[in-house]
Amino acid sequence: MNPAFFKKVKRNDRIAKWIITVGGMAIIFSVVFILILIAKVSLPLFLAPDKDLRAEFQLEHKTAEDKILALGVDEYLETGYRLDQTGTFRFFNVHYGSPLDTLEVSSETGSRRLVTARTYGRLNHMLVWDDGSVTIEHVKFYPFFDEKNDNVRSIRHRIERLASFAAPDYGLPVETMARVSDDGRQVRIDLFRSGEFQVTIAEEEESLFGAGDRIEEMHQLELGAVGDVTAMTMSTDGLKLYAGTSTGEILRWDLSDIEAPLLKETTRAFTDQREITALNMVFGDISLIVGDEQGGVSTWFPVRDADFGWKLTRIHELQGHTQAVQDVSPSPHDKSVISFAADGIKISHMTSERFLVGFDHGAERIVDFAQSTRGNGVITLSDHGTVQSWKLDIPHPEISLKTLFGKVWYESYPEPTWAWQSSAGTDDYEPKLSLTPLIFGTLKGTFYAMLFALPLAIFGAIYTSQFARPKFKAIIKPAVEVMAAIPTVIIGFLAALWLAPLIERSLGSMFLSLILIPAALMLSILLWQGARKVTPLKQVERGYEFLVITPVIVMAVAIAAVLGPGLENWLFGGDLKQWLFNETGTRYDPRNCIIIAFAMGFAVIPIIFTIAEDSLSNVPQSIKAASLALGASRWQTVWRVILPSASPGIFAGTMIGFGRAVGETMIVLMATGNTAIMDLSIFNGMRPLSANIAVEIPEAPVDGSLYRTLFLTAVILFVMTFIVNTVAEIVRQRLRAKYGRF
Amino acid sequence: MATTTKNMNKYWRVGEPMVWLSGASLAITLLTAVILLAVIMMNGLGVFWPAELHRLELKDGSQVAGRLMKTEPTVDGNGLRRQYKIANRDMYGLDFRWIDENQIVRQAKPKQLLVLERIEHGDFYGELQSLVINGARHRGSLADLDEALTAVNKETDGLKELEDKLNDASYQMEQLRLKELKYRYKGLADSDSEMITLNQDKVSLDKEFRQLIDLQTRQTARAREDKAVFTDVSGTEKEIVLADIFQVYTPNNMSAGEKMVFYAAKLVELLVGEPRESNTEGGLFPAIFGTVMLIFVMSLFSFPLGVIAAIYLREYAKEGVVVRIVRIAVNNLAGIPSIVYGIFGLGFFIYGIGHSIDSFFFPERMPTPTFGTGGLLWASLTLALLTVPVVIVSTEEALGAIPREMREGSYALGSTKFQTLVRILLPMASPGIMTGLILAMARAAGEVAPLMITGVVKLAPALPIDGNFPFFHLDRKFMHLGFHIYDIGFQSPNVEAAKPMVFVTTLLLVLIVLIMSSVAIYLRNKMKKRYTFGTF
How much is the pLDDT for B378? Predict the structure, then answer.
C-alpha cells in the first residue's frame, strides 16, 4: 500500500490522541477553574486593608502663631485646605503641597479671630469666633468644564455658609457646639465656666399658613450630680445631645421639643470613673462613639431594657490607644470610626469591630487629620507642619468572619443576632450579611425534604428491584427516570400555587392522612393474612403488592379529606392554624417546610431511587439464591443479605440526593417565603443559600461587598456539594471495583 | 386461636408486612408523580376550551355573567360557593368573583352572550348593541361585526407591516449611531469622507423614518375610528375600538365541532403567537424560540466537549489515579448546584470575557455593554458547562457497553486507534451519545436558575435571529419557557388571571421534557439490550 497513506493515517491518529487528551484534561481543569474563579471573586472580602502614602510635604507659609484649626480634602485627594485662626481657608495641592488660593470668612459681627473649629458630616465646619458667635461653613467641591479650553474638567471649590448663631447674652462659653438641620432648625449648646449648660433652639414655628415666624427658645440643662462635662456631641440634625463627664457618665438629651429639652438618662458608662475624653456620632446618627482617657474606643446606642426603658449600652469595643483618646470621628461614608490619640490615628469598622488601618508620623506627633468624603483617603498634619496624604483601599470593611457567621449586635437591635438584610434605600444603612441563617435555611429545607424522600425512595427501590415482577420493573424504572427530568421550576410552581393553598385549606386533613395512611396499611396487612390463604389471591404476593395497596392509600387520603374539616372543628375549634398560634405561638406560614418537604422530596426521590435501585439490582443473583436456599424468607434475604451488600450504593444515592437538595434553587425560591429566619418549625419558610443568590445577585453592584458575599455563598454551596459528591463517587468506585460495572 | 397467633407471629417474623410497606412506598412515589401530571393536565388542557357562559340572577337583583371556574364549600361549611370569571376588568376591577350558591335565583345560558378577546384589559363578556362605522352608528348583527372586524384586521395587518419597517429603520439608525460613535472614538473629524457619507446616510434615514412615523400615525388614527358598542350583563354600555378586539365568539352558540376547531386554532396561536397583556395571554412563540435557540447553541458546545472527554476517559486514558480523579471531577460537575453555574457564568463569561470583548472590540460604546451583559451566548455557554457531564456519562456508558472483541477485531485488521474509533466505536455508540445529548437538551429546557442571572428576560424586544446583518444576534437577551412560568406565575400583577397561562406553559414544557427524556431512555434501553449478549 501507499506509504503516504499510512503516514497520513498515523498522523491523524496522533493528532486525534492529542486533541482528545487535551479535551479530557480540560474537564478536570474546568472543575478546579470554576472553584478558583468564584473563590477569587470572593477572596478580596478577607484581604487586609491597604494604605498607600501618596505625598508628604511641609506646609508653606505656616507661622507658629496661626494655629491650624481644621483640615479638609476633596474626594479625589487632589485639593486640600486648612483653616487657621484668622478664618482663612488656605487651599493647597495635595500632591505637591503647593498653595492654590485662599478664601476668607468672618463672623456676622465682623470678628476675624477664631477660638476653635470643629468638623462634622461631609466637610461641614463649625467655627466659634472670639466674640462668642458661631457660624457653620460648608466647603463645596464641584466639577467645572472649561468651554473655552475643549471642556477640560477641573474641580473648583467655594465656601457656603449654612448657618450663623449670635453670641449668647450670658458671656463667653468655654465650649460650644452648634448644628443646623436640613429644614433650618438651629441648635446651639454652650458650656460656661460656671458649669451652666445652656441650649438655644431656633426653628420656624409651624403654622397652618405655610412658613410661620422664627422662634427661639433658650433653656438651662440640668446636669445633676455628675462630674464636669468633658466631651459632647450632637446628631447632625441637632435632635440628640450627648455629654460625657470627667467621672465616666454619659448624659443623653432629646432636643426635639423646642419647649422642653428632655434629659433621657444619665448612665455610668465606666465603673472605674475614667474620664470620657471624646464623643461623636457614627454615620447614621444612631450609635455614639466614646473615647476615654485610658485610650478605649467603644460604640454605644440605647437599647430597650425591661426595667429602665431605653438605656445606653456598650455595643462594640474597637481597638483602642495606649494614651487618652483626643478625638473620635465617624467616616462620612460608612460605619467606620476614626480615633485619634497621641500615639496616632486608627480606623476601625464598628459592625465588624475590625481594626482597618493606623497612621503615625514616627517621631513627629499628629495634631490634626481630615478624611475624604468617600472614605478613601486621609490627610494628616504633624506638629512639625508635615502633611501626609494617604490613599486608603478598604473595599469591604464591614466583612469579617464574625459578621459572616457569628452573632452581631446591629444598630437598633435589642440583642446580638444573626441577620441577613443586605440593603436598604439609605446610604447610612448598616448591612447585615450573616450567612448563618442562610446555611441554616439550606440545611433545614434539605433535612425536611430528605425526611420525606429517603424512606420512600429507598423502600421503593427495594421493592422495585427485589419484589416487583420484571415486567413492572421494566416500566417503573424508566418512569422514575423520566420523573427526574421534570423541571424543578414546574415542581416549584405547582408547590407554590397549587399545593400550598391546598394544604393551607386542609391542614387538618393532611395531618389526619399522616395517621390514616399507616393505619390503613397496617389494617390491610392484618386483613391480608386471612385473605392470602385463598389460592388465587396468593398470586398477588408475586410482585403485585404495590398495585393492590394503591387503592388502600387513595382511600385513606380520601377518608382523611372528608373527615379532616370535621375533626378540625371538633378538636381545634375549626381552625388548626389559629389553634397552633394560640397554643404554641407558631405562626403558620402558607409557604412553609411542609410544602418544601413534598416538593423538594419529589425532586430528589428519582435520583436516590435510581442509584439505589441500580446498586440493589447489581448484587449478584447467586447471593440471593444462596440465602433463599438456606431457608430465609424473601424479606430476610433482602434485609440481611442484599441490603448490606448494596448499602454503599444506597449511601452514594443518598449523598447525591442530598447534594441536589442543597443546591436546589427554583423550588425553594418559589415555594418558600424567602425570609431569613432561624426557626426549626415546620410551619415556617426559610431562605437557603441558593435562592438567596438568585434573589440578590441581579441587584448587587459588581465588586461590592454584597456581590462578593454572594460569590462566597456560591463557594460554600460548591464545597458542600463537592464533599458530598466526592464521598459518594469514591464509594461508588469502590463498589464498582467489587461488583463489576453498573 | 393459638395457631392463628402462631401464624401471625411467623408472618411478622419473616417480614412479609415489610414487603407490603415497601410496596406502599413505591405506590406513594408513583402516585405523587401521577398526581403531578394529572394536575398539570387538568388545569392546562381546559384553558382554551370555549366553556359556556352563565348568566346568573342573584337575590339582591343584580345580574352576573361569567364562566364557572370551580365550586367549593363555603368558609363556614354550610353550602357551596362558586368562582366565576366575570372578565370586564376595566369596568369591574376584578376578573374573578366568588358567589354563594344560595344567592343564585336563576341561571341561564343566553345564546347571544359574546366573549371578546381584547388586546388590552383581558376579556369582555356581554352583548353587541351597535356598530359605529365611519362615524355612523347603526344596529348590527354578529355577522356585521365579523365583517367590520375583517376589514379592520386588514388595516391592522398593513400597520404591522409598517411597524416592521419602522423597526428595521430604527435598527439601522442605531447601527449608524454606533458607527458614528466608533468614528468619533477613532478621532475622525466631521470633514472626513467617512463621516460625510455617514451624515448623508443619517439624514436620508431620518427622513424616511419620519415619513414612516407620519404614515403610521395617520393609519393608526384611521384604524381606530371604527368602534362597536357593547353592553355588559347589567346593561351598562361600553364602547370598544374594533382594532382593540382580537377575537369574538359566542361560546353558548357553538357546536361541539366548532368548539374543537376553535380549540385547535387557539393551540396554533399559542405556538406561533406573540404574548399579550404582560405575558398572561396570547402566544408563546418568543419563549419557545428562545428556548430552542438556547438548546441549539448549548448543544454546539456541550456535545463535542462531552463526547471528546468521554472518549478520552474510556479509550485513551490509562486506568489509574488520574482517571479516577477525572471521574470524580465529572460527577462533581454534575452535582454542582445550577445556581453556582449561574454565578460562575456571571462572573466569568459576562463580567470576565464579555467585558474584555467590549473593551477590545467596542470601546466606543462604553460604558453601555454589548457582550458585557447577560445574553443568549453566555446563557448557552453556562448551560453547556452544566450539561457536559450528562453527555460524558452517557457516551462513556455507550462506549463501555461495546464488547472488547469489536475493538480487537478492528486492531487485528490493522486499523489505528483513531480509525477504530471513528469507523467502529462511534457508530455503535451513537444511540448512547444521542441519549446523552437528548438528556442534556431536556435538562437545558427545564433549567431556570442559572439563566435568571445570565440573560433571560420576561419580554425580549427582538428575537435572537432576524433579517438584519449578521442575522444571529447572540448578544441579545432572550425569553425562555421555564422562566416564563416563574415570571408570570410569581411576578405578574394579577396572579389569578395569569394562572391559566402558567398552566398551559407548564403543560407545554412538561410535554417537551417528558417526550425528550422518554425518547432518550428508550434509546438507551434498546442499546443496552443490543449489547447485553456481549458483556457476559
Answer: 92
Is B383 part of any domain?
yes
Q: Do A489 and B485 touch (CB under 8 A)?
A: yes
How many whole angstroms separate alpha carbon A180 and alpha carbon A160? 13
- Tens of pLDDT, residue by residue over A68-117, are 888 888 888 888 888 888 888 888 888 888 888 888 888 888 778 888 88
Q: Are residues B110 and B93 in the same domain?
A: yes
For residues B143 and B113, state if they share a domain.
Answer: no
- Do residues B321 and B452 share a domain? yes
Cell 468521554 locates to B310
CB contact under 8 A, A498 and B348: no
CA angle, A701 as apex, A697 and A705 as ends, to 5°?
Answer: 85
What residue of A is the nearest CA neighbor of B30? A480
pTM of the model: 0.87
Phi-psi region of B88 (alpha: psi -120 to 50; beta: other; left: phi over 0): left
Residue where the block lists cell 476653635: A116
Alpha-carbon torsion, ordered B306, B307, B308, B312, to 10 deg = 100
Backbone angles phi, psi at A681, to 5 degrees: -55, 140
Q: What is the pLDDT of residues A532-562, one digit of tens each?
A: 777 777 777 778 888 888 999 999 999 988 8
| Grid cell in block for residue A535 | 389460592
Same domain for B91 and B151: no
Confidence at residue A65, expressed as pLDDT on a 0 to 100 scale: 57
> Residue A725: which of B31, B332, B495 has the nearest Cβ?
B332
Question: CA–CA separation, B125 vs B262, rounded Å?
Answer: 18
Q: Say if B360 falls within a structural domain.
A: yes
- Is residue B161 domain-shared with residue B120, that is, in the same domain? no
Q: Write out pLDDT tens, residues A57-78.
A: 887 666 655 778 888 888 888 8
> A29: which residues sit within 8 A by CB, 6+ positions away?
none
Same domain, B329 and B180: no
Whether residue A456 contacts residue A701, with contact meaning beta carbons closer than 8 Å, is answered with: no
Other Cβ atoms within 10 Å of A339 Cβ, number? 26
For B453, which of A462, A694, A726 is closest by C-beta distance? A694
Say if CB B145 and CB B130 are below 8 A apart: no
Structure confidence by residue, pLDDT tens digits, A426-465: 667 888 888 999 999 999 999 999 999 999 999 999 999 9
Cα separation, B229 vs B245, in Å, equals: 12
Domain holding B491, by residue range, is: 285-531
* B50 in a structural domain: yes
Q: Is residue B276 part of a domain?
A: no
Q: Using the beta-carbon criterion (under 8 Å), do A468 and B311 form an inter-chain contact?
A: no
| Range ranked top by mean pLDDT from A112-121, A187-196, B245-254, B255-264 | B255-264
Residues B387 and B496 in one domain: yes
Interface test with B, best of A466, A473, A489 (most B CBs within 10 A): A489
The C-alpha cell at A622 is 447467586
State whether B187 and B334 are in the same domain.
no
A463 vs B: CB within 8 A: yes
Task: Give every CB contact of residue A494 below 8 A, 6+ residues apart in sequence.
Answer: A599, B36, B39, B40, B506
Nearest to A686 by CA among A669, A698, A703: A669
Tell me, what CATH number does B101's domain have?
2.30.30
Q: Are residues B486 and A468, on separate chains, in Cβ contact within 8 Å?
A: no
Q: Is the peptide bond before A99 cis (omega within 30 degrees of 0)?
A: no
